[in-house]
Amino acid sequence: MLTLAWPFLLLLLPLPLIFRKKQQQKPMGGHLLLPGASLPGQVVATEKSQQSKKRYWLVWCLLVLACARPLWVGEPIELPSKGRDLMLSVDLSGSMQIEDMVIDGKVVDRFTLIQHVISDFIERRKGDRIGLILFADHAYLQSPLTQDRRTVAQYLKEAQIGLVGKQTAIGEAIALGVKRFDKVEQSNRVLILLTDGSNNAGAISPEQATQIAAQRGVTIYTIGVGADVMERRTLFGKERVNPSMDLDESQLQQIAKATGGQYFRARNTEELEQIYQVIDTLEPVSREQLSYRPQSELFYWPLAIALLASIVTALSNIAAFRPSLSSKPQFAKGGR
Question: How many other C-beta atoms are found inside a 10 Å radius of the C-beta of residue 96?
C-alpha cells in the first residue's frame, strides 16, 4: 500500500499561487509599457516560457511530495509470541584493549573477541528481546529491550574502548539492567555481564546491586574475560605474565550464585561460546502477539525527478536566452 508519512505538507502546493497573486496586486512603479514595445531584458511570453512555467510547477509539486515522505507499506508480519528477555552488559574499560585473545590464529584484544562472539550470539537469538548496556566509569543504556537484533549488533560494533571511561563500574551495570526489567511484567529477566576486572567505580557497589537483582527476580550470568598466561618482551627476553590478575573471579561467582545464575571463564572463543548452550535451555516466556508492517522510503523518486526537471528547465532557459544576447538593434541609415 502506498501512503504518505506527512500528508499535511500537501497543503503547501498552492503556496506559489498565493505569492503570485500578491505580486500582481503591487503597482508597477511608474513604468510605461507601450503596445508592441518591450523593455530591455523583458522576456516575451512565448511557447517556451509557458513550458518553463509548467516545469516549475512540476518541480514544486515533486518537492512537496518528497517532503510528505511517500512510503510503501508491506503486508503485516507477526513477531514471535515466545522468547526470552536478555540484557547484555559489556565492559568498555581500558583493560579491554589488552591483546591476549586469539581469533582464527590472529592475536586480538579482549573487546574485539567479545564483539566477534557476541555479535554471532545476538544473531542467533531469534524471537528473543535483547538490550545493551555499556559501562566503564559509569553504566549507560545503549539499547533497550528490542527484537531488532541488527541494531543491537550494530551498536556493539560501533562501541569503542574508553568511550565511557577507563574504570569498571560493575555495580552500576547491574543496577541499570535491573531497572530496565522493572518495566517488563512477563520476562525471564536475564542479565549477562561481561567484564575483565573488578569494581572500582560507580555510585553503587556490586553487593548492593546484586541484592536488589535477587529481590526482583533478575538472574545474572557473569563472564570473566581474559587469558591466564601471556608472553611479553622485556630487555631480558620473553616473560610470562598473568594478564587477568585484576579479574575478581570470586566476586563474579558470588553475583551469579546469589541470583541463581552461573559464572563462566572466557579465556578463548570456545569458552565464551558456552553461554549459548545455557541460554538455550531457558524456557521462553509467552508474550502478547505483536505484528509490524515493513516500510520502504520512496521520497528519493520524486526528489530525483524534481532535480532532473530543474536541470532541463535551466538548460532550456539558457538556450532561449542566448539568441536574445546575440541579436543587435537595427538602426535606419541616414544622417542629419
Answer: 25
pTM greater than 0.70: no
CA-based nearest residue to 216, from 255, 171, 175, 256: 175
Q: Are 198 and 247 in contact (CB under 8 A)?
A: yes
* CA 213 vs CA 113, 139, 207, 220: distances in Å: 28, 16, 10, 8
Cell of 281: 535451555
pLDDT in tens, 289-321: 556 577 889 999 999 999 998 888 888 777 766
